[in-house]
Amino acid sequence: MKVSNRVGLFSMCFAMSFPVVAEETLRIATVSNPDMERMQKLSPHFTKANPDIKLDWVVLDENSLRQKVTTDIATKSGQFDIVTIGAYETPLWAKQGWLVDLKGMPAEYDAQDIFPAVRESLSYEGGLYAAPFYAESSFTMYRSDLFDSVELVMPEQPSWDFIESAAAKISAKHTDVNGICLRGKVGWGENMALIMSMANSYGARLFDMEWQPELTGDAWGKTINDYTRLLQKYGPEQPEQQGFKELLNLFKDGKCAIWIDATVAASAITDPATSSVADKVAFASAPDAGLGKKSNWLWSWALGVSNASEKQEAAKRFVQWATSKEYIELVATSEGWSNVPPGTRQSLYQNQDYLAAAPFAELTLSAILSAEPNSPAVQEVPYKGIQFADIPEFTGIGTAIGSQVARALKGDISVSEAQENAQWVTSEVMSHAHFIGNK
Amino acid sequence: MNNQNQSVAEMDDEQLPVAPHRLHGARHFLGLYAAEHVAATEFVIGAAFVALGATIYDILIGLMIGNTLAVMSFWLITSPIAVKTRLSLYTYIDKHMGEKFSRFYNGANVAIFTAISAAMITVSATAVRALFDIPPQTYPYPTSLYFAIVAFAVGTIVVVVAYKGFNVVSDFASICAPWLMLMFTAGGMVLIPALNESLTGYTSLNSFSDFISLAGATVFTGVNAEGQPGIGIWEVIGFAWAANTFAHFGLVDMALLRYAKKTRYGLATATGMMFGHYVAWISAALMGAATAALMKTSIAIVEPGDVAWYALGATGFVIVIVAGWTTANSNLYRAGLAAQAVFPEVSRTQVTLLVGIAVVAGSCFPYVYRNILPLLTYAGLILVPIGGIVFAEQQIFPRIGYKANWFQLKGIKDNTPALVTWAISLVFGFTLNAINIIPFFYLFLPTWFVSIAVYTILAKKHGAADSYPEAEKRLAEHEKEVESYHAQLAKEEAVVVKEKDTSLLTKAIRATWIVIGIVIPAILAWRVLFNSPDLFTYYENREMFYDLAIWCTVIYFVFAWWDLQRSKKLG
To answer: What InterPro entries does its record include (chain A) (predicted)?
Structure first.
């Protein structure tokens, strides 16, 4: 059976498996990145097969999306029927009763095909509350041509020291290229995703086992010092304004020699249609600091249905379609295998067409599988999550710490001052939340 | 009647209509009402709406409608009677209802104003309680001996000061209004980011609709303190309208509006209703809900002292003490005056002492202040029939050929129809309440109509429709005497009018309290709300607000007091 026929049949199955209802418009909030924008582009396939459903898209950058969606869901405003959320929010929001349990997926959806770690990260008390659209870890993306030009070879497992020396060498020789690109834009899902992961590899942790913040510790000091020095010396201009999307564009334009970021970026930077350096990109693991922990995170962007939605059945129908195997096949048919949403389904990594088209696939898989959200730091921690801590207070804490690091990056305050400030604000929050002491 | 034989010049000014030259313009009433309705009660009422489970839309729309109805009541009911008679209700009753009625009326006032005073002292005591780390009082009665001691001590001080230095506290209260208005608003502004953060993890709001969503999810949730569906828009409208029934339908505010040059100045009450009973109630509710969220407790039991402390830091301590004290002071005064009228044979000291003891004892019971909203509503219900009786005399009787002042003309001792009407109306109102067929905050409406109807019927039977030519002639002569006395008074008082104080020092004093006491704290509060993109910045901005607002407060009171004393001396 041809792929297109299977897609058509699958869409029909979806359409037939739900009762016919009056026309409904689903409001979908999603993040502005190539994979999500592709979903929007391909969504007429869904509406054609489901003529009773119309789609209204709200596409926002990561920070705006997170705040808007959080406000909408937490206040039960019901502006959005479907929200794009991640591994941090899903279990917390499910616990609050803000999301619909996605039970009752049809057999052809094959929920067991989803990587267990990804499925677990989007579950609460055994129920799946958001369906993964794509999953990612982080790794090192670099320009092989620039490495060759300075006679450097990227090791399979680079260290942060090596990354710095490579960035220095390349910057010295290629003044029109930034030696390194790292997220600097403030946000718990922006700069803090990288900084938390990096800190883990440096032996730092956010809290000790008594929930006391450890942000003034030496390991955090070294992390933030190295991070700010790397970006101040070899990074792009105004590094505190560079988030995932900005850095993706910089890399595609040939302005980054090394970029340590989400594995999902790989398809975009190796796509000759959009990237000027598509044939000059290579990959390596996320760096470590010699302490046995790599700085790779685990994340998935997933689609959840708001409990405040009055169109939950229609919304579930769309979520099933967008996160199904058949959607992956639809993308493969229309956009090529290298552009399919990665990281969620085991079957994708057994698909030879995909493996052949995506040179980053195996390393992505290895990064996802090696991420340890249950044991993120060198030392024991009381929380789960690599680039976040799975407590509701992390949103506020993460943004506040990220803001202090960004100030240090700009040179407005010293690193030690940023650490002191971060420690103070985190202690305040944890005290108010009765994790420590009693305020 | 009894005063007619007395020389007009010898009569107490209170017994005479307001002289035309002493009337005020609209500006006076705009300021007066803005000040009058920002008090410690607002802290409690704001939180009460949250505990009663109103939704955000019910609050925004319901309060707007209810307060508009209150303004219209002032404009269309109170103001025309006040302007027509130029008397306070106290004097009106004295002249038109007789001694017995006056005693009952004053007796009711003793009970009402004693309860309000006690409630306001408890509000102040909650701030002192927080300062001494005494546990919050979550029951209707005191559960800590230390709290009882604190309430007793605060109450005693307030009562003694009210007795010894009422005028000083009263003067002090007159300068509080701008500061209270600012701090009520600032408190809400300062805690909104914390409230938002406690729910979403973010400190900033992107739009007004975000604010509505936040307030709907955290403050006005539609669920009451018992977890049941809360009150709806009709109840909110009713509460807002009924909260001041004793002042508008009950005509107590004739005392203020008798000075209005024009009837339409009743509309000036909008400053009090739309700020104190709208912005301040909503702000107090936001503060209460945020404090409850931060303290991880129920808003039904969170105390004004905690609320103000969390919202305003040390300034919060001051606002609760000041707002509670100044409100208690004026109500103590009213309770004392009323008590003296009830017991004219007992010395003023003894009466004041008795009222003081009752107030202090009541202040030990948190039940009183927690039930201030129903208390005000029931107080309104008790006094509304009197408003109905006066309304009938002044607005109905002239239209149906009855004599509005029939009681004066007839020259009898007691106005029996008024007494019976009040009794019937109370029985009617409280029976309706007992059988629970309409919400208690709307009871005042049928009760008011019943009082008008009953009084119209009874008054006719007692001679309201009769003719009293002799007495009318005497009364007309008395009115002429009053007019000529007022004309003479106007000439005398015109001589002592001084030039407006435009000195540089006065301007500098005024600029200091306006800029440092009002503008700077407003800017600081603005920064907390609109320039706190993350928690660190929020805490930093909030700490700066806390640290500076208290000094701005000190400077405000020093310079506003100085300004007041200079204007008294020079103006």
So the answer is: Bact_solute-bd_prot1 (IPR050490), SBP (IPR006059)
